Amino acid sequence: MSDDKKVLLLLTLLTKLTSEKKLQWNATPPPSSITDGSDDVVSLHFETTYKNQTISLYERRHQVYTDEDQFYWTGTIVVAFLDGSRRNLWEYSEPSAAIVNLFELVRRSAAKVDDLIDDLLSDSATES
Asked: pTM of this prediction?
């Protein structure tokens, strides 16, 4: 099995575990190993632990220079494995629906959107 297929399977598994609330992600400041020596901006960074491995998921924003002498901002979603000192040991950033879906689910989960909606619906049903 190719490495890309393995990573896509991992992303699918992380998405499943997150949607089942078996995996909790925390918004954390990005480790210096991700930000130091770079002009990139990490706008959102999340971490979780799965089978004793710290997994980092974040959006890296950076400027791209065009042929028309202009810059524009773009972003890349990255999944990375961190060691005990939060050093970035490995990362994957190939664009895919799997990595985008995981990132959006983790954002929604970390913001507790579903809990808030459930609370609002429960309050609404009680008031009726």
From this structure: 0.84
